Amino acid sequence: RPENSPGPFFVDHTCIDCDTCRWMAPATFASVGDMSAVVRQPQSAAERQAAMQALLSCPTFSIHVRERQPGELKAVQQSFPLPVPGCDSVFHTGFAAERSFGATAYFIRRPEGNLLVDVPRWTPLLAQRLQQLGGVRWVFLTHRDDVSDHAAWAAHFPACQRIIHAKEVNRRQGTDQCEVVLEGEGPWALPDGGGDVQLVFTPGHTAGCVSLLYRPDKALLTGDHLAWSHRMQRLTIFRAYNWHSVELQLASVAALRRLDFLHVLPGHGRRARFADAADRERQLEALL
How confident is the model over 33-75, as pLDDT tens digits? Predict the structure, then answer.
């Protein structure tokens, strides 16, 4: 694409404008003409690493680099999953899947058993890294849009169990094979009984959307329920992509006020980090 800045990194015409590279490496990538483009070549080792991480995470393999340094690719592959700033146990898996339009998946390390929240594209190298970190005991699927390669991940980690709400189950995506199906309106704990995780019914975007509160890091993992809008510079529910009920989604957002969280970690959209509970309340009120 002619919109790319001259240099080794470039984005081709297959970009689907999912925003993954732009939030992972904002110094390098930006939106130009309804697609991402390299607007500035990396100027430091840290910027180059972020650009390479975005390259590997692109769901459509639309990012390329003409020249690689010896051992660079392996080192970047080994950097995943990436720590989420401000969280001790929550990580970004990278390797987004095209079938979930580049949704962000997360990995949570916990003594009772590690947890995937939504799933990245099936990647043996990433699976090896997660195995080194203790494997995966639970795969929590927030809603039907972001289930992607859930069956491949479950097959690789045979002891893991997938969790999804009954209203999101369907045969076409294979979620009728999920081992744990949530019924009703919750809230729910994980079947291992750990008090660190609360599953919160947040319908609206879809009929059975469920968010996950990870209490130790005060992190709310929201799927497509709630996110930060880079364009509007505030929280958003992305009304244009609501598949069920905007009114119900807003009511679900309002109900989040009773929860103690300082991070919003979405599947689509940008992350939000609040200074304190008062800041969280102000941001929620601005949306509502």
Answer: 899 999 999 999 999 999 999 999 999 999 999 988 889 999 9
What predicted TM-score, i.e. pTM, was given to this entire model? 0.96
What pLDDT is stored for residue 1 in this prediction? 84
| 162, 154 contact by CB (below 8 A) | yes
Residue 143 to residue 221: CA distance in whole angstroms: 12
What tokens were used for 80?
């995943």
% pLDDT > 90, the chain: 97
Label residue 106 exposed, middle or buried (CB < 10 Å: 0-12, 13-18, 19+). Answer: buried
State how far the Cα of 96 lies from the Cα of 148, in Å rounded to an integer: 9
Give the pLDDT confidence of 99-129 residue by residue, as tens digits. Answer: 999 999 999 999 999 999 999 999 999 999 9
Spell out the domains of the chain, with CATH numbers in brackets. 9-63 (3.30.70.20), 83-287 (3.60.15.10)
What is the rounded distance in angstroms from the CA atom of residue 69 to the CA atom of residue 73? 8
Report the alpha-carbon distance of residue 287 to residue 193 in Å, rounded.
Answer: 34
CB 183 within 8 A of CB 169: no
Check residue 172 and give its pLDDT.
Answer: 96
The C-alpha torsion from 200 through 211 and 142 to 118, rounded to 10°, is: -130
Question: Strand runs (DSSP E) across 166-271, as ranges?
Answer: 180-182, 197-201, 210-214, 219-223, 227-229, 234-236, 263-266
Residue with tokens 């991402």: 36
